[in-house]
Design brief:
Blueprint (H helix, E strand, L loop, with lengths): L1 H11 L1 H5 L30 H21 L8 E13 L4 E12 L2 E12 L5 E8 L27 E2 L2 E2 L13 H6 L3 E6 L13 H6 L14 H16 L5 E11 L1 H12 L5 E5 L17 H7 L22 H6 L6 E6 L7 H17 L17 E2 L2 E6 L7 H14 L2
Parallel strand pairs: 4-7, 4-8, 8-9, 9-10, 10-12
Antiparallel strand pairs: 1-2, 2-3, 3-7, 5-6, 11-12
The chain binds alpha-D-glucopyranuronic acid.
Alpha-D-glucopyranuronic acid binds next to α8.
Length: 420
C-alpha cells in the first residue's frame, strides 16, 4: 500500500517532475538570453562608468537585495571588539597571531564571533585575505593556541564534531584548505571566522545574527529580508570594521575569499561593501558565480529546497522558473567591478557548473571595460590548470570541490599584481 502510494505520488506530483536528475549534459542546456549587464531595466543603454555607478549598479544591487539574498533589516546599535589573545611569534616565528572577539549589539541582544588573524611577523600594513571557515577557526591550522569554537557545528563525525560541538580532534582538520605558510611567506595576512558563530547553518532563522533584529514575537524575516548568506556577508563587513583598526593590516587591500556556500557569501559581501579591495570565489556554484539560466548541476529550485534559509523568500519565485529572472549571476559578479575578481572552478565539481562560472566571469567583463580593465575576454574556456589572470581572473583546476594549495598559489600571484 505504501509503495503504491509512493508510485502514485511520483506520477502526479509536480515536484516529482521538477526534481528530475540534475543535468550534466551540455547539449541539454536550454537556449537563453544572457541579460545585458549594460542595459538598464528601463531599456537605457549604459555607456560609461558614471552611468554604471549612478544608475545601473544601484538597480542591480537592489534587485539582488530584494529578490535573492535579502535586505539587512536596519543598523546595529553597537559594535565592539576585544583582542583576547596575541602572539607576535606564532607558527614557528613566521606569523603574528591575534584572536579577536567581536560583539554586535541590537535591541539589547548580542552576538559574538571570533576572528583569527595571522599576519607576517614584524610587518605592518599588509594585504589580507578574509574568509569564513566551515567548522571553526581551530580547523584551519594545527596551531594549539587557536581557540576551539563553542558554537553549534554541522554534523561531521570524521572531523571530530560530537553532538554538534567541535572537539580537540577537529584541530587542523581543514588545514589543507588554508595554505597559511604560503600566504604569510608571500607577505599577506589571513583572517578567518567560523561562519556558524554568525548564523548556524540550519533551516531556522530564529537564531544567529537574525535574532538580534527581530521585534518582540517575530522569528522570521520578511519576504525581502535576509537569509543566512546575507547575514554571513554582513558579518564579513563587521570583521572589516575591526581590520580597519589593526595596524598590521592594510585596510585598502582586504580581499574577501570564500569556498562554495562561503564563496557565495564572499561575493555578496564584495557586492554590498565596496571597501573590499577584491573578491575570490572558489567553487561557489549556484547562487554564487554560476549562471542560473544554464540549469546545469544545481539549480535555483534545488538549492532553495535543500537550503531554504540561504536566500530570501522572494527568491523561491524562481524555483524551476529561471526564465523569469531579469538578471543572472554575471550581474552579481559585475557588482564587484572595477575591483579585482577571481572566479575559480574544479574540473570534477560539475554540481557547481564550471562552465557556468567561467561564462559568468566572461559576461561580467563588459562592465570592467567601462573602467578600462581587462576581464575574461574570450568565450573559450581555458584548459585545466591554465589560469587567465586579468582584473577578472579565472581558472579551472584538476580535482574535486575543495580549496587546494594550487588555488592559493594562483590567488596570491594574482593578488600581488591586481590588488592595488
Ligand atoms: C552543497 C550546495 C552548494 C554549496 C555546497 C558547499 O553542495 O548544494 O550550493 O556550494 O554545498 O557549500 O559546499
Amino acid at each position: 500500500m505504501k509503495s503504491l502510494f509512493y508510485i502514485f505520488f511520483i506520477i502526479i506530483s509536480p515536484m516529482a517532475f521538477s526534481q528530475v536528475e540534475p543535468n550534466y549534459d551540455e547539449s541539454k542546456v536550454p537556449e537563453f538570453l544572457v541579460p545585458d549587464p549594460l542595459m538598464a531595466f528601463d531599456g537605457t543603454k549604459i555607456k560609461d562608468a558614471k552611468a554604471w555607478t549612478e544608475k545601473r549598479r544601484p538597480e542591480v544591487l537592489a534587485f539582488f537585495e530584494n529578490e535573492v539574498f535579502g535586505k539587512v533589516p536596519g543598523e546595529l546599535d553597537a559594535f565592539s571588539f576585544e583582542i583576547i589573545e596575541e602572539d607576535a611569534n606564532a607558527l614557528d616565528g613566521i606569523a603574528h597571531r591575534k584572536q579577536i572577539a567581536v560583539t554586535l549589539t541590537k535591541n539589547k541582544k548580542t552576538l559574538q564571533f571570533n576572528i583569527l588573524l595571522y599576519t607576517p611577523s614584524g610587518k605592518d600594513n599588509v594585504p589580507v585575505f578574509l574568509g569564513y571557515n566551515f567548522h571553526g577557526n581551530q580547523t584551519v591550522t594545527s596551531d594549539p593556541k587557536v581557540k576551539i569554537t563553542k558554537a553549534w557545528n554541522m554534523k561531521n563525525d570524521n572531523l571530530g564534531i560530537v553532538n554538534h560541538q567541535a572537539t580537540e580532534k577537529t584541530r587542523g582538520g581543514r588545514a589543507h584548505r588554508w595554505d597559511i605558510n604560503g600566504i604569510i611567506k608571500a607577505g599577506f595576512g589571513l583572517a578567518t571566522i567560523y561562519y556558524g558563530e554568525v548564523d548556524p547553518d540550519k533551516n531556522d532563522l530564529s537564531d544567529g545574527l537574525h535574532r538580534l533584529f527581530y521585534k518582540e514575537g517575530h522569528q522570521n524575516p520578511e519576504a525581502n529580508e535576509w537569509g543566512s548568506i546575507a547575514a554571513w556577508s554582513f558579518a564579513l563587513s563587521k570583521a572589516f570594521d575591526y581590520l580597519e583598526t589593526d595596524p598590521n593590516v592594510d585596510a585598502t587591500k582586504v580581499v574577501a575569499f570564500g569556498h562554495s556556500r562561503l564563496g557565495k557569501a564572499a561575493l555578496w559581501a564584495g557586492a554590498t561593501d565596496t571597501r573590499f579591495a577584491g573578491v575570490i570565489s572558489n567553487d561557489s556554484g549556484c547562487g554564487g558565480a554560476a549562471l542560473s539560466k544554464r540549469k546545469f548541476g544545481e539549480t535555483v529550485g534545488r538549492i532553495n529546497n535543500s537550503f531554504p534559509h540561504w536566500f530570501n523568500t522572494n527568491f523561491k519565485k524562481y524555483n524551476e522558473n529561471e526564465e523569469a529572472l531579469p538578471v543572472d549571476q554575471h550581474q552579481l559578479l559585475a557588482l564587484v567591478a572595477p575591483r579585482p575578481l577571481y572566479v575559480a572552478s574544479a574540473e570534477e565539481d560539475e554540481w557547481a557548473d564550471p562552465k557556468g562560472e567561467f561564462l559568468s566571469a566572461h559576461y561580467a567583463t563588459p562592465v570592467y571595460h567601462l573602467f578600462g580593465k581587462q576581464g575574461i575576454e574570450s568565450t573559450e574556456m581555458p584548459k585545466v590548470n591554465t589560469p587567465i589572470q586579468n582584473t577578472v581572473a579565472y581558472h579551472i583546476r584538476t580535482g574535486v570541490h575543495d580549496v587546494t594549495d594550487y588555488d592559493w598559489e594562483q590567488y596570491i600571484k594574482w593578488a600581488k599584481e591586481f590588488v592595488e
